[in-house]
Amino acid sequence: MTETIALHGKKALVTGASRGIGRAIALDYARAGADVALLARTEELLDVLASEIRALGRIALAVPCDVTHPEQITEAVDTVLEEFDVVDVVTNNAGGNGRPRHFLDLPRAAWDEAMRLNLYSAADLCRAMGPHLTARGQGAVLNVASFAGQGGVPLLSPYAAAKAGLISLTQSLAAEWAHTGVRVNALVPGWVATDLTTPLSTDAQLSAGLLQSVPAGRWAAPEDLTGAAVYLASDAARMVTGACLTVDGGMSALRGGTTMLQLSRAAGAAAAEDTGHAARP
């Protein structure tokens, strides 16, 4: 089993690789033995990451690409296949939640932007890589979705709708491509501390409010997601397709909201007072 949860000899492609979750996944793909093609808009950050991956003894290919432009995706895929010859793992990580807005105040352009970045880019990359993967009869696609795609999120309706679409796309392609040997799965994070969420995670009052819905009681780091990503990309998950692997510190366990969590913490504090032991925060 320890041998199959590895990516030795595989070639991986990661979008949104220059920072945050994508950067962490790309590094751990390399640590697991894969060569990695890195796609993102910021060439300087890609070059830094590529150097780190090469220092691990793996091949890194930095390919500047704005995934909201389908023609750039096509060009990037051509570049990667020319360099790598094959791609075994495709990871659609690029995304962003934009500025929180009430739905009625949301310009159509902002809605379209969220869809292009979080949903259409993944569909376009799957469209570009699909012929290669299905012709080879093997490969793994990993779509980085969000807990927002599994329920309503006020003020982030376009992001939530796009991620819900990404989850549906994952399941549809998994069913459509399963007979070819290509697997398609989704990684579903909860609250993750990245550059994009810094305004939330660094606001003490706001962060505390958000963490009321997280039984683990903390923000995830990007590195908390990489073990799940490596597993889904590896041969250890060879019969896993159409799955949504949730990494959210227990958020999805609270289907009824935060009330029971608050009650359980209050009960724990009361019990601690009775016994003289400190309650765990």
Structure description:
It comes from Streptomyces olivaceiscleroticus. InterPro entries: NAD(P)-bd_dom_sf, Sc_DH/Rdtase_CS, SDR_fam. Belongs to the short-chain dehydrogenases/reductases (SDR) family. There is one protein chain. With 281 residues, this protein is an alpha/beta fold. The chain has helices spanning 20-31, 43-55, 70-84, 108-136, 157-177, 198-201, 204-211, 226-233, 259-275, and strands at residues 11-15, 35-40, 60-64, 89-92, 139-144, 182-189, 244-247. A seven-stranded parallel sheet has the order 3-2-1-4-5-6-7, sandwiched between helices. The longest helix has 29 residues, at 108-136. The protein is globular, with a radius of gyration of 20 Å.
Concise synopsis of the structure shown:
With 281 residues, the chain is an alpha/beta fold.
